[in-house]
Amino acid sequence: xxxxxxxxxxxxxxxxxxxxxxxxxxxxxxxxxxxxxxxxxxxxxxxxxxxxxxxxxxxxxxxxxxxxxxxxxxxxxxxxxxxxxxxxxxxxxxxxxxxxxxxxxxxxxxxxxxxxxxxxxxxxxxxxxxxxxxxxxxxxxxxxxxxxxxxxxxxxxxxxxxxxxxxxxxxxxxxxxxxxxxxxxxxxxxxxxxxxxxxxxxxxxxxxxxxxxxxxxxxxxxxxxxxxxxxxxxxxxxxxxxxxxxxxxxxxxxxxxxxxxxxxxxxxxxxxxxxxxxxxxxxxxxxxxxxxxxxxxxxxxxxxxxxxxxxxxxxxxxxxxxxxxxxxxxxxxxxxxxxxxxxxxxxxxxxxxxxxxxxxxxxxxxxxxxxxxxxxxxxxxxxxxxxxxxxxxxxxxxxxxxxxxxxxxxxxxxxxxxxxxxxxxxxxxxxxxxxxxxxxxxxxxxxxxxxxxxxxxxxxxxxxxxxxxxxxxxxxxxxxxxxxxxxxxxxxxxxxxxxxxxxxxxxxxxxxxxxxxxxxxxxxxxxxxxxxxxxxxxxxxxxxxxxxxxxxxxxxxxxxxxxxxxxxxxxxxxxxxxxxxxxxxxxxxx
Length: 590
Description:
By secondary structure, the chain is mainly beta. The protein has two domains: 2-237 and 332-376 and 516-589, no CATH class; 383-500, Beta Complex (Ferric Hydroxamate Uptake Protein, Chain A, domain 1), CATH 2.170.130.10. The chain is built from seven helices and 34 strands. A hairpin with a 2-residue loop joins strand 25 (442-445) and strand 26. The radius of gyration is 29 Å and the shape is globular. It comes from Saonia flava.
């Protein structure tokens, strides 16, 4: 808690680059008490073709204890090409240090070597070596810009897998062992994979599991959790910065939304200004923030929001035109990344063409093999209060919102004050027959705050679905309000007529990736007939990005595809004590 208070104090000196300056020895000591982080990412393959999915599972790790970190609540994953351009940038919500995501490889990406990076904002204080980085190769046969010679010719020797008698060395560990219901499988055959834990509590932990066809084109060892742990001695345990240095504050209590407010005409920052932030939607969020002397504002959001944009308004009678600039991305030393050369030779043509055809066929049946979105826990609107909801279709329709408030919504009155229409809300006490109180309610339309309610009062109520009322007092931006009136319009109705006199700016939100439950093909009795005539050319038979071992045995069930060959089972993860575990085994599909 003490460290959290220090972070909040430091945020008062936040600059647009997202950094704060360490002012004194007390601040430095407090910051050094918060361990640095590092990250491991289990990727399902080192090689991808267009039409395939890159799946990843995140382990955010405390660099002092090597256990999962609960410091940062947000992680970031990027794919970087050899020209140091960002192919994708994902924001991932971390739950007790764990997260997941995926990326569909498009046909627009050229063949070449790429880097997958993983980090948190706090981790960036340690430099590029504190981040996770692994090589990813993409082979795109649909473009004509392919390299010419052999593949992986310039890969680091330490990454090349040595083969003996045609078999790749497998990772073994005395903690776990696999069991399979058969030694050899046929196509569309059921696999029952058991995971035996021989060490009881010493094997408890968080893991991810991938089962896919063994790579034929690139003989490169995948980046395992055991190999990753070899970098531990080179990691920074605490921040390396000193007094007067700048640091990046962690997203310790949720997603950070920050920016800078400028006067649109004078181009000067607007210091000490009260700003309302609205995140509209059914799970709307309404926040008030004050800008610093540099015009910077910030706010943390503990829950994911459904809103695509954040809207900003200057509070009170301030009618100045203003602009909002988003917080800039912290600097990452992409120039220090080194990329191995990806080369392709003619002997690979047959394998490349076959795999590409399989991918095209698989994607043609995408609609019947879809993943499932996992429901996210959104924020609670209305400050946690339960509103009285009035569905206008259940009452006599009146022409305007003003008349609907008077005739339909109980415990609300409308009056003119200082020549402008406003509303009163009656106190929320049982058997309270006192008159309406003097201070007004907060008005929101579809989650967006409305300060000038004149236009709203005369808005066509036939375009309104519901009016919700909360009658509790609350303080917002230093001003006392009596309740909240929330108006939800009918689907497709815009707010142009309501917001004519409102001075509102917006920023597009960098949305977090939505977690998924990945499709698991079945050929049981219930599914056999449905999929009998549908081709199955999956290379990836099973992907489980996050599961917990807290007993002796685990069982996973999945089915082989129509592709024969050698398949590899790969488990990666960490015990609750921070020990990395990797376990691999192959099996044959005939």
